[in-house]
Amino acid sequence: MPSPTFHGFRQGTEGGRGIMKAAPFPQDEPARLRDLENYHILDTEPEEAFDGLARVAALVCETPMAFVNMLDGTRQWFKATVGLDLRETPREHAFCGYTILTPKRPLVVHDTLEDARFMDNPLVQGEPHIRFYAGVPLVTPDGYALGTLSVLDHVPRELRPEQLNALRDLARQAVAQLELRRKVNDLRDTIRVREEAEQQLDALHHELENITETVPDIIYQLDLGGRLVKWNKQAERVTGYSRAELRSRPAVAFFREEDHDRVTEAIKRTLEEGYAQVEVPLVSRDGHATPYEFRSRVLKNHQGRPIGITGVARDIQEQLALEGLLRRQRDALADHAARLTEANADLEAFAYLVSHDLKEPVRAIGAYLNAALEDCRSGAQEPPLEYLEQAANTTERLGLLVEGLLTLSRVNRLHPSELEPVAVEAVATSPECCVRYEQAAAERGAEVEVCPEGDAPVLATAPALAQILGNLILNGIRHNPSPRPHVRVAAAPAPGSPRMTRVTVEDDGPGFSDATVARFNARELLGGSSSHRGATGGFGLTIARRMVERLGGRMWLGRSEALGGASVTFTLPAAIEIMA
Fold first, then answer.
1. Distance CA 481, CA 443 (A)
2. With left for phi above 0 and alpha for psi between -120 and 50, is residue 49 left, alpha or beta?
3. Do 395 and 416 belong together in one domain?
4. Residue 229: CB partners within 8 Å, gap ≥ 6?
5. pTM of this prediction?
């Protein structure tokens, strides 16, 4: 959209004056602009939080104009204004271009016509005829000045120290609002902290709604005896005392007895050293204690003699709550990083295992084919069927390994919404599962028994469960020396865990070695040579275990009490309620 037209703004020169001097860019301008962009504040709608700060700034500093603005690469954009009907101006017209060059201190121009930087500015020579300017940079925790909180007047003037201090405090409130605004947006992406973020946002809105015609902080003045002599309306609202009740009340009367010594010491330090800062709970009339930060300075007369103490008290309970939230976030991030490190180490070991176990059948296939080729070249009478059969069998095993890896990859990418109720018995007898073991079963005369599961479905996907069951049944047949191998599949609710279903695949073979059981159940990675199951056994078990764990269960090895051989048991989340 084109920028709005600014009525009364004039470019160029007048009356023989020189060309207006635009402020140079800060040395860290690219980084500053990136930081500004991260706050997502530009071109947003007006917000009462910032409007209230601008109103309070104008009231405290007794000026007809005030604003909260941000400076991007080409313009100054106003988030809130008082006495100005503007949304943006070219950056070269912005007084605040000079303000952000000194992030650690405000810029005060008592008379713009006496300052060479501003005397020819269109905003000075034309509407709104700025003669006085005071601005405090809005400095982020990363040290970048994104904009300012500024007050303006049509006549030259000065700011009292307490007014300038109040302007600084309001600028910090604006930065705190920016920080909380950004953190709330970040926290919305994390379910773990959603409730805390909403509480912070609600509390912030409640606090900002209470900003009226005064600053949100308590501004006070004490006499040399530590008695209250002046205060703002916020003091009455916070403490609950009337104006008559507050008059000449000792400062220590607003604190718990155990904090009197700290308050007295802060008053003494202010008078002796000129400044003091203390955090102590402020007790209201109803006995409620609220954490407050008190900053006080000695007040002197024109002769330099102390005549009292002036200060600002700020409610810091929101700040303490946010600090606690950030600490919890850091702890959560540290825990996540530790888990990620462990997962990366496990992934690296798994990748090594995959590489090792895929190389063995590839080398074997090459060896068998070379041997067959040599027989053919030597003119052998019989075709090299034995070598070709071995190569074919090894190719089949290699295909199973690759298929397992592909299925594992698909399971890793599954979204929870893609899981569905699956009946174990139906999958175990489905063509997708049977095709994995039916040829081996026919060759060995094996019996595959699938026990009725009753009401024990699982939450998974049919292809993934078919891969797991088919490979386990095939291992029970292929690596079983019994004349007629017997493999049984059973599913039932897991004892003591009604939300889980337990699935067992057992056979009547020699079973796993104790070492293999111990290693697998300790979650060590098994390769093809790690168990009696052969080239696909240990590695196949490792893939099956990873698939089960990705689906929310676990797997372990043991000995079958019914058949006497190997037993592979795994659990998956039950889906009874969903199916019902």
1. 13
2. alpha
3. yes
4. 221, 222, 223, 247, 248, 308
5. 0.38
The closest alpha carbon to 511, from 546, 563, 569, 440, belongs to: 563
Q: Do 168 and 303 have their domain in common?
A: no
Helix (H, G, I), strand (E, B) or coil at 33: helix
22 inside domain = no
Domain range for 294: 218-315
Looking at the structure, tell me whether residues 186 and 59 fall in a common domain: yes
CATH of the domain at 372: 3.30.565.10
- Beta bridge partners of residue 68, listed in sequence order: 80, 149
User: How far, in Å, CA of 481 to CA of 492, rounded?
Assistant: 29
495 and 475 in a single domain? The answer is yes
pLDDT of residue 22: 83
In whole angstroms, give the CA distance from residue 476 to residue 506: 7
Q: How many domains does the chain have?
A: 3
pLDDT of residue 542: 77
Read off the pLDDT of residues 144-174 as tens digits, 9 standing for 90 and up: 999 999 999 999 999 999 999 999 999 999 9
The verdict on residue 344 lying in a domain is: yes
Q: Tell me how long the chain is.
A: 580
Distance, in Å, from the CA atom of 418 to the CA atom of 69, rounded to the nearest integer, reads 48
Q: Are 423 and 389 in contact (CB under 8 A)?
A: no
Q: Does residue 156 have a cis peptide bond before it, meaning omega lies within 30 degrees of 0?
A: no
- Of the three residues 181, 209, 237, the one that is the final residue of a domain is 209
Phi, psi of 308 (to 5 degrees): 165, -165
8 Å CB contact between 320 and 302: no
Q: Taking a C-beta distance cutoff of 8 angstroms, is the pair 520, 541 a contact?
A: yes
With a cut of 90, say whether residue 123 has pLDDT above it: yes
Q: Are residues 100 and 191 in the same domain?
A: yes
Read off the pLDDT of residues 350-384 as tens digits, 9 standing for 90 and up. 555 555 555 566 666 777 677 667 767 776 666 66
Residue 29 in 3-state DSSP? helix
446, pLDDT greater than 80: yes
CB-CB neighbours of 554 under 10 Å:
14
- Are residue 203 and residue 294 in the same domain, yes or no? no
- CATH number of the domain residue 51 falls in: 3.30.450.40
310 & 383 share domain:
no
Contact 22, 92 (CB under 8 A): yes
Cβ count near 483 (within 10 Å):
8
Residues 530, 476, single domain; the answer is yes
Nearest 10 degrees: Cα torsion 222, 228, 229, 234 = 110
Show the 3-state SS of 3-21.
Answer: CCCCCCCCCCCCCCCCCCC
* CA 275 – CA 295 distance, rounded (Å): 7
